[in-house]
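Lab meeting, action items carried over

1. Structure of the two-component assembly. Owner: GW. Status: complete.
Input record:
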Amino acid sequence: MAAHLAVIAVAAGLIALAFWRIDYDWKWDEVWAYRRRFVTGWLATVAISLAALVISGLVGLVTAICLGSKSLVLEAVARVYVELIRGTPLLVQLLIGFYVVASAVGLENRFVVGILILSLFSGAYMAEIFRGGLKAIPQPQRDAARAIGLTRWQAFRLVILPQAARIVLPPVAGQLASLIKDSSLLSVIAISEFTLAAQEVNAFTYSALESYLPLAAGYLLLTLPLSWAARGLERRLRHEG
Amino acid sequence: MPLPLLPPMPRRHLLLLLGLLTVLPAGGCGVRSGRFDKPSGRPLRVGMELSYPPFEMTDARGEPTGVSPDLARALGEFLRRDVVIENIAFDGLIPALKTGRIDLVISSMTATPERAGSIAFSEPYLRTGLAILAAADSNIESAGDLDRPGRTVAVKKGTTGHLFAREALHEARLLVLDRETAAVMEVAQAKADAFLYDPFSVYRSHRRHPDTTRALLTPFRGESWAVGIRLGDDELRREVNRFLKSFRESGGFERLGDRYLPEEKAFFAAEGIPFVF
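Predicted assembly:
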């Protein structure tokens, strides 16, 4: 713990040094005047992240099961989805998704569209993570589960899933942290989230950099608890193994 | 027993940590004093956002071209200095100028009193204003029509349209976008009732989307564009003003207008809309 604090102190010191050296006159009070804008933006990011978290988890799980499915159609759909989404930038998906696809189907609410696109984006990565986790469970586990009389669904729920969950927890936690940060890109379709709030405040106060410190702090406020929770969960699951 | 400030660590780690802390402040000194030297023969770094045809754009090879790059190069010739053009997003230009990354901003930037608190401006070189690109079906006829609940107004982040909308349009919903093309798209798809921007871009955007947009070209608010200079850099400001005067007297602006804006010049003249370089 003390070592972590020491490293944080050094890092903060280096950053402070960089800020001091660039000969820039700081206007913190002007940025403080806009604090409500920051808070509403941060809350929007929290809402978006939570919704996308849940949806992408479900999408990823379903896709992972499809990827391992014996059905040609299911596997093909899942595979094309994963490769397409993982192979193109989120920015492109947002612009095409909102201005072309959503307009074509008549989905007007940009908040909903943004969450959906973000969820689909993250879901593809989750699918690969889950697929890896499921594959890592050796076949004898499945055979043994069937041998003691469990149904396919019971085997999955009681034997496979708990073991796979332990394996996928670290990469999933990483993907969720990425999702929270990727949500900043929703600003390109004018969704009023945290990053856009910071950029607007910068624009109104003609300050270049003041907003970016609260911005970084705000995202850390979301990703650090996630990281701690994931590590705590890891420790708990390990004992049950 | 006194608490240790740092955890017990091998001596080499401690030495490394201390070394880092002492070396860095010393390393910074040379760069800091360098900034205050008189720049003679140093290239002039000009910042602009190259996504604003025909004022700031790139040609097929990716080289900066347009009114502002030509103006920057003419300035370089006048001052006998090399010119380096930096492509920077519009809302990052003032920060780049303030932190010394660029020396000038020549990016069709409007001189406003608020901006003048942060940077200095040259004499204005173009008089224009804010115009409206309206959605075809909306019945907007003026800026006043926008300030009603249920109206949606698109603006580009950091521009005078954005600042105006924020100050004057309290009832309307504001869509803040970082790309002009996205804002035009919002209007063309009727997601927004209007886009507030300069008359040239409104004209061109309307030509691109003739059926889904209407152009209200007469500026509802007058503005002037000027060159941005760092506060305190008075020498450079005087030089830029001298250049602008000389450039205008030699007909330089006429040539720029004919080269890049022939259609707009003719159209605006016919409509009686101010087009004054």
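2. GW to write a short summary for the group page. Key points so far: The two ends of chain A are 27 Å apart (CA to CA). Chain A has one domain: 40-240.
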